[in-house]
Design goal:
single chain, 438 residues, alpha/beta, eleven-stranded mixed beta sheet, 37% strand, globular
Length: 438
């Protein structure tokens, strides 16, 4: 497969320069998927603020940088990543600059979980092609998404989690994606499949070992089978000088349940697109998010909840806390398709400004094409409540302590919904530290 793409954009040219030829797969459909992505990547352009979906997110700082593919990941020892370990997550996949690190990982088979597959995508795709082909590249469409196209064009290593029919996995799976090298672009890929009647909790965790400038361009696809449930926690704590682009696409079967908590703390510029399709009757999703940013950070979250079938339920709460000169963006769209009667959907965007220079743009949307529905949405942007501050100060707290406590409580509401106790504690401490003011 040729990786020589012609594009006048300097960002793309630097990114593609030196990209190694990917090894061909014995699977014709997999080779064709990557070839199609290459073709689309060659025709698409980097989005600008003239594009409606990107009008608040200026990628010009990304364009001014020169990035190279991660040709080889550095050798890390267990001690280098120990601080990211979680007591509850005995099953772990580790990727360094997009490359799978077997010596740092604990796949499911080592723990005797019969039927559960947690491994590197490239090593498992041939043996599990029949189960993977209906899902890989089918939800995160790249026809009009440059970043998804690039990710798919470079698709090789990736996190594969497949839960067999009827299995309830009580151990969270930790997918740890570590950035280590400056001026490098990596393309992490995750595919999570829960077969009918199964249940699992998965943590998708982006971290950095330094404060370098780099690009993480991630794509995650999630298939929730009939009567299955996936609890998906996504934590982005990249270097505050990095660029993070994330695309996640979810498909739910009959009575499938998807629970999502996403937390954005890092990156100079981050963009997260979450597209959820309730594609069969009785499906449910609960999507919660928190962006906590400072300095000159920009965090943009775009979500789409598509009620494609009747009798489905969705709930969404997204919060942003912006301090310094930071800029947070939330665009949440709920679509109710024709015939999707008895839809029950509610969306709330709540945002907190801690500095006069900070900015938050929020746009909740409802598009309803059915007449028997119950839908609601709302958005607020403001500062800390003066009456609440007065109450706490009247109980003996200083003004600074009162502001810190209220800010922490505002963010901790989302953190508290994470079902992994040790991760919840660590993130609560992070929120507490970041919201402290002298």
């Amino acid at each position: 497969m040729s990786m020589s793409l012609v594009n006048s954009n300097s960002y793309l040219e630097s990114l593609l320069r030196g990209q190694p030829r990917l090894p061909p797969s014995p699977l014709a459909w997999f080779n064709q998927l990557r070839a199609n992505a290459v073709d689309h990547a060659g025709r698409l352009k980097l989005p600008t603020t003239r594009d409606e979906e990107w009008r608040f997110t200026d990628l010009s700082p990304l364009v001014r940088q020169s990035f190279q593919p991660a040709l080889a990941a550095p050798t890390l020892q267990a001690a280098d990543v120990e601080r990211f370990s979680l007591a509850e997550a005995a099953i772990r996949l580790v990727f360094v600059d997009g490359k799978y690190m077997a010596q740092l990982s604990t796949p499911a088979e080592r723990l005797g979980n019969r039927g559960l597959i947690v491994t590197n995508l490239s090593s498992a795709i041939t043996a599990n092609a029949e189960a993977i082909e209906p899902h890989l590249g089918q939800y995160a469409r790249f026809e009009d998404n440059l970043f998804a196209a690039l990710n798919t064009a470079f698709l090789h290593d990736g996190a594969l989690v497949m839960v067999p029919r009827g299995a309830a996995i009580d151990t969270p799976v930790h997918v740890l994606l570590i950035a280590t090298q400056p001026e490098v672009a990596s393309h992490p890929r995750c595919l999570f499949i829960a077969e009918a009647g199964s249940e699992i909790t998965i943590l998708e965790d982006y971290v950095s070992l330094n404060d370098a400038i780099y690009v993480t361009n991630a794509v995650t696809e999630i298939a929730v089978g009939d009567n299955a449930q996936i609890s998906h926690i996504r934590v982005q704590r990249d270097s505050t000088e990095a660029f993070h682009i994330g695309n996640c696409a979810v498909s739910l079967g009959h009575a499938g349940r998807y629970r999502s908590v996403s937390v954005a703390l890092g990156a100079r510029i981050s963009r997260y697109d979450l597209n959820t399709v309730l594609d069969a009757e009785g499906a449910e999703c609960a999507i919660d998010g928190l962006a906590l940013i400072n300095g000159r950070q920009l965090a943009d979250t775009h979500s789409s909840i598509d009620h494609a079938k009747p009798n489905c339920t969705s709930r969404q709460l997204h919060k942003c806390i912006a301090d310094g000169s930071a800029h947070a963006v939330f665009n949440g769209k709920i679509m109710v398709r024709p015939g999707a009667q008895n839809t029950d959907s509610a969306q709330s965007s709540r945002n907190l400004l801690l500095n006069a220079k900070a900015r938050i743009d929020t746009k909740p949307q409802l598009e309803i094409f059915a007449d028997d529905v119950k839908c609601a949405h709302g958005a607020t942007v403001g500062q800390l409540d003066s009456e609440e501050l007065f109450y706490l100060k009247s109980r003996g707290l200083s003004g600074t302590a009162a502001r810190n406590l209220l800010t922490y409580a505002f963010g901790a509401e989302i953190i508290d919904r994470i079902p992994i106790a040790s991760l919840k504690y660590r993130l609560e401490q992070t929120v507490l530290e970041q919201t402290k003011k002298n």
